[in-house]
Amino acid sequence: MARLTGQWLSKLMCSKSNLSVSFNISLRFKTTKNYDVKEIIQLNYDNYNLYGPKLNRKSKKSEEKSEYHTSSEVESHKQSEKSGKLTKSKASNKQTVGVKSDKNSEVSNKNNEKKGNKESKVPFQRKIDPAIDYILTYPMVRSDAEVDNSLLVQSAGRLIPSVTRIISETMSDLSKFYLERWKKKMISELGAEGFKKLQEETFRNGSNLHANIQHYLSGIPETELDIYKDNIGHWDSIRKVLQEVKEAVAIEEAVKHEDLCYQGKFDCLAVYKDRLCLVDWKTSKKSKPTIKDTFDNPIQVAAYIGAINNSQLLQDKGMDQITNGAIVIAYPDGQPAHVHIMDQKLCEENWKLWLERLHMYWKKVREIK
């Protein structure tokens, strides 16, 4: 193909001039003949006639606007003016973009500040009340730190509230709802008088069961106990647990927490399975295989543990602090009782819950007065 192209060009140029020029073009388009000056001029002239004037290519960016350009001064001046306008417009655009970006950044900063403020806000924050807020951080074990409980003593007056009363008056709305629904159901089935009689029987049976537990752990034989007929099933349920209690330190004793200003009477302080525990005896017709089924009972146990540790009871007996508890559920049908052990970690968790309830109680008392 290259050879044919070279022959065609040589014929065309020779027809326009008297010069006889022959080409010997190789495949790489390299000539083997040496040309003189006149021949080169003639070739340039022929190229001009064939292909027109020589054109200078623009850069790739300028090719998008126009394919070719001339080198005249007028055109270059126009191009310079246009480029000047373009640079000015670009500069102005940069300035406007800069202003917009600054505005956008200011807006974004404001939004970020707003978001940050929203995130930093706490959904619920307890009002600071130095007179009673020390309650929330009081330790379960004995503390040598001195606290000012004069406001609690003044608010309590002559009657120091019991653990049972505090738990009852700080019950959640959901727990109150379930309790009221249960009462209405029982009254609808038994009537008002029948429900009152049931409560009296339940209290009497509970007192009898606790009294027999106390006598048994004090060394009285089971054959000499006066167990009510309604409590025979309960006794059968807890018999094995009672046999595992090795040492009863205190039974049915009253205790008071001087610094937190509450009191109560716990069921039993004894060694159960080689650990000193505060044992709380409960009865239930419904099975309670997990500690969650006992509702507020773990909080009650933690409250008694904190009060015992703050009192002189253990010191008088030469014993260490108590950090374990046990909830024993006895059933009227005689099935084996469920025993829920509370280790120190679980007792500490429920102690914190007790302090929340105690703080809530004293806050209500202060608001009323």
Mean pLDDT: 76
Distance between the termini: 115 Å
Question: Roughly how much helix do the residues carry, as a percent range?
Answer: 40-55%
Which structural class is indicated by helix and strand composition?
alpha+beta
Q: Give me the number of helical elements.
A: 11
How would the global form be characterised?
Answer: extended
Task: Output the strand order for the largest sheet.
Answer: 3-4-5-6-7
Total E-strand runs: 7
Please describe what this structure looks like.
This protein is extended. Mean pLDDT is 76; it is low at 1-6, 12-32, 57-78, 85-101 and 112-125. It has 369 residues and is an alpha+beta fold. Strands 3-4-5-6-7 form a 5-stranded mixed beta sheet, sandwiched between helices. A two-stranded antiparallel ribbon has the order 1-2. Helix 9 (297-310) crosses helix 11 (344-368). The longest helix has 48 residues, at 73-120. Helix content is 53%, strand content 13%. Keywords: Exonuclease, Hydrolase, Mitochondrion, Nuclease.
